[in-house]
Write a structure and sequence with these properties.
Length: 142
């Protein structure tokens, strides 16, 4: 089974971005880990990251057309992007929402709401990059 792992804005700077919150694993390392975890689970994983909302919407639309399961860390778009919400609503295969930190436990009010959650079969948050493995396990379980 092919799976897309889609990462939103600022996640390309993982490892350098607020390591006290997001850890020291870089995005390239995370991508390699996701591919390896996927292989263990019998999944063919492709990892992408973009800072551009329209690019993310295009990827989600393609995933809807292809009925591809998605692991999505929409990063800040999680909290306010109705374009990402509409794109998630069109997905045909399961969607797992993932966050490295736990937005619900962070002090900023705006992080407490997710436009993605209503369309996700599961939310994995607060487990660091390990959360991506947990999200892939959800998809592998079917
Ligand atoms: C994040 C949490 C979001 O609130 C934040 O905007 C991010 C990353 C996470 O993975 O913990 O960019 O999605």
């Amino acid at each position: 089974m092919r799976v897309l792992v889609l990462n939103g804005p600022n996640l390309g700077r993982l490892g350098r971005r607020q390591p006290e919150i997001y850890g020291t694993t870089t995005h390239a390392e995370l991508a390699a880990m996701c591919v390896a975890w996927g292989a263990e689970l019998g999944l063919e994983v492709e990892v992408r990251q973009t800072n551009h909302e329209g690019v993310m919407v295009d990827w989600l639309n393609q995933a809807a057309d292809d009925r591809t399961p998605v692991v999505l860390n929409a990063a800040a778009w999680t909290h306010y992007s109705y374009a990402v919400l509409d794109a998630c609503a069109q997905l045909e295969a399961p969607l797992v929402e993932v966050h490295i930190s736990d937005p619900q436990k962070r002090p900023e009010e705006f992080r407490h709401h997710s436009v993605v959650t209503p369309y996700a079969v599961e939310v994995v948050a607060g487990h660091g990059v390990e959360g991506y493995r947990m999200a892939l396990e959800v998809l592998a379980r079917g």
